[in-house]
Design a protein that fits this description.
Oligomer: single chain
Helix content: 55-70%
Distance between the termini: 60 Å
Structural class: alpha/beta
Number of helices: 25
Shape: globular
Strand content: 5-15%
Number of strands: 11
Radius of gyration: 29 Å
Strand order of the largest sheet: 7-6-5-8-9-11-10
Number of domains: 3
CATH architecture of the largest domain: Up-down Bundle
Length: 747
C-alpha cells in the first residue's frame, strides 16, 4: 500500500471544482463535436449508419492518441513543464479551426469511402479532438499530485464527471443544438468554445504548477509496489473492447430499422457513457450484483429478438438498448474493480482506450469485409457472456437439466417451424429456452453455451420464415434478396430490402415480369406521372435518384433515355444481375445509364434543362439522406428540368413525416407543387401496388396543368414548418410529426 510521509505539507487550497470543471468542459466539447462533424459529412456519403460507425472508430483512435499523449506527458516530473507543453499543443491544434469539412481531399468517391472519411476527419477535427481527449487522464493525474494522497478513489471519481459532461453534451445536441442552431452557428460556436477551454486549461495548469507538489513520491512508490502485469493489461483491453464493439453493433442494428440520423446515433453512445458514469462512481447507482442479474435476462432477450425486424419499433429498440447497456455496464464495472492505484492512472486509461479502438475498429473496418451481414453484433454479444463470473466448482445436476431444456428448445423451434407447426407454439418453446438461459447465469461457461444455442436458433428460425436467399454487404449497408410466393403474380416474386425497408420487387412469371410493382405500379403517383408524360411525348429523358431493383426502367420505350443516380455500387451489381432482377436488362426498351456517387453531387454535374422527369426516390429507406431534401438541392433539381419537366419527390416513410418539410422546401425553392397521398386498393394483391406519398414540383403551373386536372392531385397549401436547408434540417421534428399522426393525443 502507498505510504505518506508524516511531515508532508498540507494540501494546497485548490478547489476540486476547478479540476471537475476542466474535465467537464473538455468532455462536453468532445461529445458535442462528434455528432456535429458527422452531420457535416453525412450529406456527402449518403446518410448510412456506417458513416457514424466509421466516425466513432476514428474518434476512439483519436482518444487513444490523446490518452497515450497524457501518459507520456506524465514522464515529465515537473508539473510546470507539463503545463507549458500542453498549452503549446492546445494552441497548435487550434490552427485547424474554425471547424469545417476540410476540402484538401476533394469530393468523396463510392469506391473508397472509408479512406476518404478517415482522411477528412483527421484533417478537420483530429488534432483538437485528440488533445481534448487527453484532459481527463491528465487532470486526474494533476489532481492525484496536489490534491489526493494515498490510495483512495478521488482521481477515478473525476472520470465519472468527465462522462457526465459527455452525456449532457450528447443529449443536448439532438434536443437543443440540432433543431435550434444552423450548422454554421454550431461550428463557429464550438470553435470559440475551444479557445475558451484553452484559457481555462492553461489557468488550471498554472495554479497546479504553483502548488506544492506532494505527489511524485507517492507516484513512484505506486509504480514500484504494484507493477502492472500484461495479464492485467489484456483484461482491461478485453473488458473495454466488448462494450465498444457492442455500441457500434447496436447502432447499426437500430438505425437500420429506424433512421440514420444523429438524434438516434447518440442513443447507444449516451448509454455507453452512462455506464462509465455509474461504474466510476464511488458508490455506484447500480450494484455489480444487480447488473449481473438483469444483464443475463436482457442479453438473452436481445439475442433472441435480434433477427426479427418486424414488430413494435419502440419495443424492439428498448430490448436491444437494454441488452447493450447492461452488458456494457457489466464489463465496465468489472474493469473498474481491477483498476490500479493512481500512480498507474494514465496507463490504465491508455489500455482501456486501446480496447475501445480494437472493439470499434473491428466493427467499422474488419466486419464489413469478412461478414455479409451484421454478424459482429450477435457474435460479440454472445462472447460477452465470458466476462461474467466463473463457477470453478463441479456442475450441479440441476444445471445439466436446464442446459438440456435449452438445447431441446433451441433445436426444436426451427425444426417445428419448417413442419408448419403453429407459430405460437414455436415462440413458447423459444421463450422457454430463454428462461433456461437466465437460470444458467451463475456460471459464465454454461451461460455462454446456452446463449449461443438460443441465438443460433433465432437466426435459423428467421431465415426459414422470411425466405432470405442472398445477402450482400457494403459500406452503405446490408442488402437482402428474398423470395415469396404470390399466386396472383404467377408464383415466385423476388424482393430487395435494405434492413427492413423494401426497395422493390419483381415477379418471375413472364406474364408479370415487366409489370412495375410496389411504389412504381401504374396506379401509384409515380406510375401516374410516367404514364402521363409518356402519353404526351414520343421520347423522354428521365433521371432517377435511387436505383433499388431498377423498376422504373420498365417504363422506358425505344428512344427514351434513363439515368440512374446511385451511391452504392453494390446496388447496381445486384439489380443488373438477371439471376436476381431483370428490369434493367430485360424489361428496359430504351437506353439505361448508371452514375455512381452521391446524387447531390452527380445530379449537379448534369446539363441544365435536360430531364422530362426527375425522380428523387431516396427517402423511403429509413436512412434518410436529408441533404437531398433541402432548398438548395431542390433548386438544383429544378434547374435540370426542361421547361415543362416534372420533379417527383417520393416521400413515403414509416417513421418520418416528410411531406411538411418537402412542401416548405418546394415553396422556398420557387417551384409550384401538387401533393398526392395514394392508398392501396383493398382488392390489390400483395406487392401489386403500395400506399404512397408523393409531391410533384415544376418551375411553373403550366408544367403541372395535366396533373392539376386530376382530382387525385391536390394543392398542398402554404408551408407549415421551416424549410430545410443545407444549414438547417430537423429530422427529430419529422419523427415527432409522424408519432403525432399515429398518437393523436400528442400536443
Amino acid at each position: 500500500m502507498t505510504t505518506v510521509d508524516a511531515a508532508a505539507p498540507r494540501r494546497p487550497a485548490i478547489s476540486p471544482a476547478f479540476f471537475a470543471t476542466a474535465i467537464f468542459a473538455s468532455a462536453a466539447l468532445v461529445f458535442l463535436v462528434e455528432p456535429m462533424i458527422a452531420k457535416l459529412v453525412l450529406p456527402l456519403l449518403g446518410g448510412g449508419p456506417s458513416i457514424w460507425n466509421t466516425s466513432l472508430a476514428f474518434f476512439q483512435a483519436a482518444l487513444l492518441v490523446g490518452y497515450g499523449y497524457a501518459n507520456l506527458l506524465q514522464r515529465l516530473r515537473s508539473v510546470r513543464s507539463q503545463v507549458i507543453v500542453h498549452a503549446m499543443i492546445l494552441a497548435a491544434a487550434a490552427l485547424v479551426l474554425p471547424l469545417r469539412v476540410h476540402e484538401a481531399l476533394g469530393p468523396p468517391t463510392s469506391d473508397h469511402p472509408v479512406m476518404w472519411l478517415l482522411g477528412v476527419l483527421t484533417l478537420s477535427i483530429g488534432p483538437p479532438f485528440a488533445i481534448l481527449s487527453a484532459t481527463a487522464p491528465l487532470v486526474q493525474a494533476w489532481y492525484a499530485r496536489v490534491m489526493h494522497v494515498g490510495e483512495g478513489k478521488g482521481p477515478y471519481s473525476l472520470y465519472a464527471a468527465s462522462n457526465l459532461g459527455s452525456l449532457i453534451a450528447l443529449l443536448a445536441y439532438p434536443i437543443v443544438v440540432e433543431p435550434m442552431l444552423a450548422v454554421h452557428t454550431q461550428t463557429v460556436g464550438w470553435s470559440a468554445a475551444y479557445i475558451a477551454f484553452l484559457i481555462l486549461m492553461t489557468s488550471l495548469g498554472l495554479v497546479v504548477a504553483r502548488a506544492r507538489d506532494q505527489g511524485p513520491a507517492e507516484v513512484v512508490r505506486d509504480l514500484a509496489e504494484r507493477p502492472v502485469t500484461w495479464r492485467e493489461r489484456l483484461i482491461w483491453v478485453a473488458l473495454a473492447a466488448i462494450p465498444s464493439s457492442l455500441m457500434l453493433g447496436v447502432t447499426t442494428h437500430i438505425t437500420t430499422d429506424v433512421a440514420s440520423a444523429p438524434f438516434l446515433w447518440v442513443l447507444p453512445l449516451a448509454l455507453y457513457l452512462l455506464t462509465f458514469v455509474i461504474a466510476f462512481q464511488d458508490r455506484p447507482l447500480i450494484r455489480p450484483e444487480t447488473t449481473l442479474m438483469f444483464q443475463a435476462a436482457a442479453a438473452a432477450a436481445a439475442a433472441v429478438l435480434m433477427p426479427f425486424k418486424v414488430g413494435p419499433i419502440l419495443v424492439l429498440m428498448f430490448v436491444q438498448l437494454a441488452g447493450f447497456f447492461l452488458t456494457a455496464l457489466m464489463c465496465h464495472q468489472a474493469m473498474v474493480a481491477r483498476r490500479p492505484p493512481p500512480g498507474q492512472l494514465t496507463q490504465f486509461y491508455f489500455w482501456m482506450s486501446l480496447g475501445g479502438v480494437l472493439g470499434g475498429g473491428f466493427n467499422a473496418f474488419v466486419a464489413p469485409v469478412i461478414f455479409n451481414n451484421v454478424w459482429e453484433y450477435p457474435l460479440v454479444l454472445v462472447l460477452s457472456a465470458l466476462a461474467r463470473p466463473w463457477d470453478r466448482g463441479p456442475i450441479k445436476l440441476q444445471r445439466w437439466i436446464w442446459l438440456a431444456i435449452v438445447v431441446l428448445g433451441a433445436a426444436a423451434a426451427p425444426v417445428l417451424s419448417s413442419h408448419g407447426v403453429d407459430e405460437i407454439y414455436i415462440k413458447l418453446m423459444l421463450a422457454g429456452a430463454v428462461v433456461g438461459v437466465f437460470i444458467l447465469r451463475k456460471d459464465a461457461g454454461i451461460y455462454f453455451i446456452a446463449l449461443t444455442l438460443v441465438t443460433l436458433s433465432a437466426f435459423v428460425l428467421q431465415e426459414r420464415t422470411t425466405g432470405e436467399h442472398h445477402t450482400w454487404r457494403s459500406f452503405f449497408g446490408v442488402l437482402r434478396q428474398t423470395e415469396g410466393g404470390i399466386p396472383q403474380l404467377g408464383g415466385t416474386v423476388h424482393m430487395l430490402a435494405h434492413g427492413s425497408t423494401l426497395h422493390g420487387a419483381q415477379a418471375q412469371d413472364p406474364r408479370w415480369r415487366c409489370r412495375p410493382l410496389t411504389y412504381y405500379a401504374p396506379e401509384t403517383p409515380i406510375g401516374q406521372v410516367f404514364t402521363s408524360v409518356r402519353a404526351r411525348k414520343t421520347a423522354i429523358n428521365v433521371g432517377a435518384v435511387g436505383l433499388g431493383t431498377g423498376t422504373v426502367s420498365a417504363y422506358t420505350r425505344p428512344g427514351d433515355h434513363l439515368t440512374f443516380f446511385e451511391i452504392d455500387p453494390l446496388v447496381k451489381q445486384v439489380s443488373t444481375d438477371p439471376a436476381h432482377f431483370s428490369y434493367t436488362t430485360y424489361c428496359a426498351k430504351g437506353r439505361v445509364d448508371f452514375v455512381i456517387g452521391d446524387a447531390r453531387l452527380t445530379v449537379a454535374r448534369q446539363p441544365a434543362g435536360v430531364f422530362d422527369i426527375l425522380l428523387i426516390d431516396a427517402f423511403s429507406s429509413d436512412s434518410v439522406p436529408a441533404h437531398l431534401l433541402t432548398v438548395e438541392a431542390v433548386r438544383n433539381y429544378l434547374q435540370r428540368l426542361k421547361p415543362d419537366g416534372v420533379l417527383i419527390l417520393h416521400l413515403s416513410n414509416r417513421n418520418l413525416e416528410l411531406r411538411s418539410p418537402a412542401i416548405a422546401v418546394a415553396h422556398a425553392a420557387g417551384g409550384v407543387a401538387l401533393l398526392q397521398r395514394h392508398e392501396k386498393a383493398d382488392s390489390s394483391p400483395v406487392l401489386w401496388e403500395s400506399a404512397e406519398d408523393a409531391l410533384i414540383i415544376a418551375r411553373d403551373a403550366h408544367a403541372l396543368a395535366p396533373f392539376a386536372a386530376d382530382s387525385r392531385w391536390t394543392d398542398p397549401g402554404p408551408p407549415k414548418v421551416r424549410a430545410w436547408t443545407d444549414d438547417y434540417t430537423n429530422v427529430p421534428g419529422a419523427l415527432y410529426a409522424r408519432l403525432k399522426e399515429a398518437w393523436r393525443w400528442l400536443p
